[in-house]
Specification:
Layout: H1 4-7, H2 14-18, H3 20-51, H4 54-65, H5 71-80, H6 83-106, H7 112-126, H8 130-135, H9 146-175, H10 177-194, H11 212-224, H12 227-242, H13 244-258, H14 263-286, H15 293-313, H16 317-344, H17 351-363, H18 365-379, H19 381-402, H20 405-408
């Protein structure tokens, strides 16, 4: 492998410079994530206006994120079928679903139950496509550029996390939430157009003789023998039952009830988190193929928990805004390296399945959201957030002690390959 100094030629945008396919995939990701983050704020605000209940907001978030529980099967789809076509189908589905829900809302026909169903339908477009979206990166860049490429994808997510909510909050103030939701559908339309030059990349790796169940069981066995990959997935699981439900669900409550902010203020608060994450992702991208990726991953995730605990204790907007920037900055190692470590620590033939497991680890969020929502009804959102953040810090320390190899892991060597049960490519989806 080339040295780190060689691989950082091109700086923080090395992968964008070297791969035309990755450039277009990245542009599509920027636009897709822009739509997701804009809708996260708009839909959350619509539910908050209709219900005013942290628990009912949590139920809505659970419905919207429930398709993540399909992660392992979505991963098998990413390993078996044409990943490009999977993303095209997801973009079209998302576009149609968002437009339909926006029309219903503008007609006054979107009470809480309709919003629940709409959130679920939109989630079916977003979540199951993630293994294909993430594993397609491996098909567009060399292994030594994977950390840089994933950092740029994380930068895209954080940049849109910064821009999308601000746009959504401003649109709510200008035209109202239903119209703001309709406008947000344009993100998916342009994302679909950006995918066209990627056509032909990311074909399936195994033949039609291999059943989905056999591929899943085989992949789980292969991944389970990689302790670093399992430990990285465990950290992802902990973060997604303890911190991400808070961010996805309770930010309208923090803004409206704790900090006395309006919709634009909520957008600004989420923009601060995106700003910190954007800066952090660019810093990681600039490092190239750096050593001890596992240690950076663990340290960043633990720091993220500490900063969320501090945010939970704040009741002043002047302190909460910079704390959100700092929390976003600390979240970057988690956001970038959770995917990088899983891909580096597993053989290429099970990358989709490994990312499907990651999606499942994220997919427990709806269940955790319901539990945290019920707890917040009893002890309040700030106290619930503080306890969750403290639990994340403890969990990260425990995982580091259980799998010290993760602290030393840099991913510069290919994992031991195992022969695939079936090795022929398959027809397109």
């Amino acid at each position: 492998m080339a040295s780190s100094s060689r691989r950082t030629t091109g700086g923080a945008i090395a992968s964008l410079r070297s791969s035309r396919s990755f450039r277009y995939l990245w542009m599509s990701n920027v636009l897709f994530f822009g739509g997701v983050w804009t809708q996260t704020l708009v839909l959350g605000w619509m539910v908050f206006e209709v219900t005013g209940s942290p628990l009912l907001i949590a139920v809505f978030t659970a419905c919207r994120l429930a398709p993540m529980l399909l992660g392992p099967f979505a991963g098998v789809i990413a390993d078996r079928f044409d990943r490009y076509r999977v993303l095209v189908i997801a973009n079209v589905w998302a576009l149609v679903a968002v437009v339909a829900l926006a029309v219903l809302a503008m007609l006054g026909a979107a009470p809480y139950p309709v919003l629940l169903v709409g959130g679920l339908v939109i989630g079916l477009a977003q979540s199951p496509s993630q293994p294909a979206r993430s594993s397609l990166v491996v098909d567009t860049v060399p292994r030594q550029d994977l950390s840089n490429a994933n950092a740029l994808n994380s930068f895209a997510m954080n940049m849109t996390q910064m821009i999308g909510p601000a746009v959504g909050g401003a649109l709510i103030g200008l035209v109202g939430a239903p119209s703001a939701l309709a406008v947000s559908a344009s993100w998916f339309a342009v994302s679909l157009a950006a995918l066209v030059p990627v056509r032909g990349i990311g074909r399936g790796r195994r033949g039609p003789e291999a059943s989905a169940w056999r591929m899943l069981i085989d992949g789980l066995g292969t991944i389970g023998r990689r302790r670093v990959a399992v430990a990285a997935l465990a950290v992802t699981f902990a973060a997604n039952i303890l911190i991400w439900p808070v961010y996805q669900t309770f930010m309208p409550v923090f803004a409206g009830d704790v900090l006395d902010l309006d919709a634009a203020g909520l957008g600004a608060l989420m923009t601060c988190a995106g700003l910190g994450g954007t800066i952090g992702s660019l810093l990681i991208a600039s490092l190239g193929d750096f050593p001890r990726k596992g240690a950076v991953f663990l340290a960043g995730t633990a720091s993220w928990g500490v900063l969320w605990a501090a945010f939970a204790l704040s009741s002043a907007a002047t302190l909460s805004f910079p704390l959100m920037v700092a929390a976003g900055l600390a979240s970057a190692p988690f956001g970038v390296l959770q995917t990088t470590l899983v891909l580096l620590a597993t053989p290429a033939r099970v990358h989709g399945t490994a990312l499907g497991l990651q999606e499942l680890a994220i997919g427990v969020m709806p269940i955790a959201t319901l539990g945290l929502g019920a707890l917040a009804e009893q002890i309040g959102v700030p106290a619930t957030t503080f306890l969750s953040a403290a639990a994340l810090v403890v969990s990260v320390i425990a995982i580091a002690l259980a799998v010290p190899a993760l602290l030393r892991y840099d991913g510069r060597h290919e994992p031991d390959a195992e022969p695939a049960a079936v090795g022929e490519p398959v027809p397109e989806l």
